[in-house]
Amino acid sequence: MEQRGIDKDSERLFIAIRLPEELRAALGQRCGRLASELEFSKWVHAEDYHITLQFLGDTAPGKIPALIDALKAATAGFTPFKLSVQQWGTFGPSSSPRVLWCGITGDLMPLHKLQQAVTSATLPLGFIGEERKYSPHITLARKYKGERPYSSGLLQALQNTEPGADEGIEDVPWTVDSMVIFVTRMNKSPMYEVVEKISFF
Fold first, then answer.
1. pTM of the prediction?
2. What is the CATH number of domain 11-199?
3. Virtual CA dihedral for 25, 31, 32, 35, nearest 10 degrees?
4. Tens digit of pLDDT for each residue in 1-12?
């Protein structure tokens, strides 16, 4: 069991799908090149790229073994499925977005079923899922602060002029064969640490 770092009164946890190492690196390189042109307050560390399934919040360490057991039981019938990254977009005002994200495509039905299974499994343990519709994505940056207004056209133009832009990472599938419980380590970079990895068989 890959469990560590559980030594406080509470840990801020969430459940997620972690991107494969190669994709994390490729997205990180692209964001690194764009960061000088798109002024966001914070660009997410490449090691922290993920697709959230459920945010749990502050959790007592004593609840974690039961959480792991519940998640393993809920996902016992799942088999690996394929996803890929797609178009980029933003949340918030179009000229000053609060989040820059990368979209997800591929086998979305099992992804949504997985998210539903996770939230159903954690409910008896006192964790409440969000009421808003599930919208899977990868957060790349937060809080635009540029002097010129942000625009999707600017992002597209910058991406099109990147070295190797015609060899994009979009629509290249990867296999999702596990999910993880992450703990947040504030003021560290990367800031997410794996508490437990739960594989699908």
1. 0.90
2. 3.90.1140.10
3. -170
4. 344 444 468 899
